[in-house]
Design brief:
Blueprint: H1 6-24, H2 49-59, E1 65-68, H3 71-74, H4 78-90, E2 94-97, E3 102-103, H5 109-141, E4 153-155, E5 161-163, H6 165-180, H7 184-195, H8 208-216, E6 224-226, E7 229-231, E8 239-241, E9 249-251, H9 261-278, E10 292-294, E11 301-306, E12 309-314, H10 315-319, E13 329-330, H11 331-368, H12 372-396, H13 402-430, H14 434-447, H15 457-463, E14 467-469, H16 484-496, E15 506-509, E16 512-515, H17 517-531, H18 536-546, H19 558-566, H20 582-595, H21 603-612, H22 618-633, H23 649-662, H24 669-685, H25 690-701, H26 712-718, E17 719-725, E18 728-733, E19 738-740, E20 743-744
Length: 745
């Protein structure tokens, strides 16, 4: 009903009785329930509890046909009306509008419903426009009084605005603390402490935004600025900040002031200064932003760009190196991991997720069947229904006065509605959304593409809730296939992100970078020794003999020494305290240039060196070129290695435990859910990347022209590692397939 007046309440009871008798009198129909919302607007389906209960019962398969008095009682929002009609039609549920004579299950039903829904919506919009016009006239005339007042004010007996002395004192305290230098978080924390001892504060949520709203509200000066925000005139209605779309109305001295105007102006000036200082930088987010959380310390990762490469790094690790060992993760690594995960879920995971959904639903049914709360509510609903039928029988026999009948019928209808809503709320509260989320995940995967060639940010946000980074260590190589590949992984890890964020020779002390005395002395020794003629090997050997540590227990190597000799931060750049005189640094750079080899390696040769674990002979490069060109000409040679189809023993054990639990009433839903999720995770983790990588490699090699010389990108994207034995190169592809001597094995 669109009104809660007495006449409408009587009509409400009469309509309930009419449809109950109409359905129960038809032997071909089975009465499910009456769904009716009293005094609630039909322009938004979300606000209508019984309407949502009807949709839930339709989705559960309890309803085949819905009878409605008129289209205006079903919905006054044309878009929502058609969406619901189409959803119910897909579920096999027809809607009959008695007043218009429309049945949506018929051919022209949806078209006619759309026409009447637009008429109903227009009628609702006209009523809203008239009310809005009236409010704006009162704003312009200075006579408008809002329905709700800011914290610190109340209405007197005549409806005027007056100060609430107890709460007004807190408002003055908020302004005073802010001007003393406290930030909004500190003020909110203080208000929360006061909330526990002062009942006047208990109805409010004291957050940073709540404090900020008080500090920005001009009404505490006794003046009013109306229409700072507005609701859109069309459906769906949304509240928007007024940025010039509509007129604003400033009315001075509309009520008593709590804060002096000068104090308010100082607070606004301070707010602007802090906003400029802390929020002036433009943030550029990515689909991954806010999704990564450290598995070691629990903090969020933040984005960082280094040498043109985007990383995500633990905030704790950035500030306190020793507090968290999880280092930075390249954005490309996350993209590649998602592509592998999506293929696994899309092609091999849907059946696992479907079984998970079945197990979760079985666990829920098994628990609710024995729930005392549900049994009690069902009994209460049955008792109210019996009382209503008895009352109807007494009315037919003339044993009840009509006024008493209507009053009592209204009471029973309200009790029945309240009991049904309580049951629905209980079911919704008990459901932790895992079932719905699993269903949505399956639907998203079924609607997604078969194969992702590139990272899809929108699909990523739809499928992924969060990412826990347990470690940034590179993946292990299968036993018997390591050698050069294993060395390549270690090298990639060092290049990808060393845990050392400050140069050797420095440390953090009270939030500032200062010299590390012992390490700084070692840096000076390295520079002096190099100028005296020592080679990289000589420096490394001497450092190892002295037992000097580099970044924990890492052994010294030539790259470390070279980085130290090339780092300009040692002469004070980047805000670091200088260790080396600038003249000495430039002398070292000249010496390094003189010693540099005139023959520079290509990017592909550098990549090959990583995979080989050292400088490979020229014939290795030639064999690699031949092997990759063979794959370019014949990509069908890339095949997926034979995979183990037998499920792991642990999965069989969990399946038995879960089946036993589901068949032992009353079902422990929490334990069953835990086992079901554990089983699904085990099955998904048991699926390797070989199938995805095989498809990716075929697409990578298809359509390429044979290479005249090795290409770094193709080498990096396709080869996991190489080994050499008896003059033959063995290549380990990214799908764990091996190629030996140019022949596929």
């Amino acid at each position: 009903m669109s009104s809660s007046s007495e006449d409408q309440l009587n009509s409400f009871a009469a309509q309930n009785a009419y449809y109950t008798e109409l359905i129960t009198a038809n032997p071909e129909w089975e009465f499910v329930d009456v769904y009716a919302d009293k005094g609630i607007t039909g322009t938004s389906a979300e606000k209508r509890d019984d309407f949502q209960r009807l949709l839930a019962d339709c989705r559960r398969g309890r309803v085949d046909k819905v009878l409605v008095k008129s289209s205006s009682r079903f919905a006054r929002n044309a878009k929502e009306c058609l969406e619901v009609i189409r959803e119910l039609k897909a579920l096999g549920v027809g809607v009959c509008f008695e007043e218009q004579g429309i049945d949506t299950s018929e051919l022209a039903g949806e078209f006619l419903t759309a026409i009447f829904a637009m008429m109903d919506q227009k009628e609702s919009e006209n009523i809203s426009d008239n009310i809005r016009w009236s409010i704006q006239k009162r704003m312009a005339g200075g006579t408008f009084v809002p329905s709700s007042l800011p914290f610190g004010y109340k209405k007197d007996e005549e409806g005027g605005i007056t100060i609430d002395p107890g709460r007004a004192e807190y408002v003055r305290g908020i302004f005073s603390d802010f001007l003393k230098g406290y930030n909004t978080q500190e003020i909110a924390d203080r208000m929360k402490k006061c909330q526990s001892v002062d009942p006047a504060l208990s109805p409010y949520q004291w957050t940073v935004k709540a404090v900020a709203r008080i500090l920005k509200n001009e009404k505490y000066t006794g003046n009013s600025l109306w229409q700072k925000s507005f609701r859109t005139p069309t459906l769906p209605r949304r509240s928007l900040t007024n940025r010039g779309e509509l007129n604003q109305y400033y009315a001075p001295n509309t009520h008593p002031a709590i804060i002096d105007q000068a104090v308010f102006d100082k607070a606004q000036s301070l707010l602007r200064e802090r906003k400029q200082h802390y929020f002036s930088k433009v943030k550029c987010g990515t689909p991954i932003s806010g999704m990564l959380r450290c598995g070691h310390c629990g903090t969020l990762f933040r984005k960082q760009v280094n040498s043109g490469i985007t990383y995500f790094i633990c905030r704790t690790h950035t500030v306190y190196l020793d507090a968290c060992p999880v280092g930075p993760v390249p954005e490309r690594t996350i993209h590649d991991a998602f592509l592998r995960l999506y293929h696994k879920l899309r092609h091999q995971g849907i059946s696992i997720l479907t079984q998970l959904l079945t197990d979760l639903q079985a666990a829920r049914r098994g628990r609710l069947l024995w729930s005392l709360d549900i049994v009690g509510l069902n009994q209460k609903i049955a008792d109210i229904t019996r009382q209503d039928r008895l009352l109807a029988q007494l009315k037919q026999q003339g044993l009840v006065d009509p006024d008493i009948f209507i009053s009592r019928r209204n009471e029973l209808a309200e009790q029945l509605r309240a009991a049904k809503l309580e049951k629905e709320r209980f079911l919704e509260a008990e459901e932790d959304e895992t079932i719905q989320q699993t269903q949505e995940l399956i639907e998203a995967l079924e609607a997604g593409p078969d194969f992702l060639d590139a990272f899809d940010g929108e699909l990523f946000r739809e499928l992924v809730d969060k990412i826990i980074v347990e470690s940034n260590n590179p993946p292990a190589v299968p036993a018997g296939q390591r050698s050069g590949a294993d060395r390549a992984h270690r090298t990639d890890g060092a290049v990808m992100g060393s845990n050392r964020k400050r140069p050797f020779g420095y440390k953090m002390e009270f939030g500032e970078v200062v010299l590390h005395p012992a390490e700084a002395e070692t840096v000076r020794w390295i520079y002096n020794s190099y100028l005296a003629g020592a080679s990289y090997n000589a420096l490394v050997n001497e450092l190892r003999e002295r037992g000097i540590s580099y970044d924990g227990d890492k052994p010294w190597n030539k790259n470390m020494a070279a980085r130290i000799l090339a780092d300009r931060r040692y002469i004070g750049e980047g805000g670091f305290p200088p260790i080396i005189p600038e003249g000495q640094f430039h002398m070292v750079q000249v010496r390094r240039q003189e010693r540099a080899s005139p023959c520079k390696k290509t990017p592909a040769q550098k990549e090959l060196r990583k995979l080989y674990g050292g400088n490979p002979p020229a014939w290795v490069e030639r064999q690699m070129l031949g092997l990759l060109n063979r794959l370019i000409r014949h990509p069908e040679l890339i095949i997926c290695p034979a995979l183990e189809e037998e499920p792991p023993p642990e999965a069989k054990k969990l399946r038995r435990e879960l089946d036993e639990l589901l068949h032992r009433p009353p079902v422990d839903e929490a334990q069953a859910k835990r086992l079901a999720l554990q089983l699904a995770a085990l099955q998904l983790n048991d699926i390797g990347p070989e199938e995805y990588e095989t498809l990716r490699l075929r697409r990578l090699f298809q359509g390429r022209a044979p290479m005249a010389e090795l290409e770094q990108e193709l080498l990096h994207e396709s080869v996991r590692g190489i080994t050499v034995s008896n003059g033959t190169v063995t290549v380990l592809l990214k799908n764990n397939q091996t190629l030996e001597g140019g022949k596929c094995t």
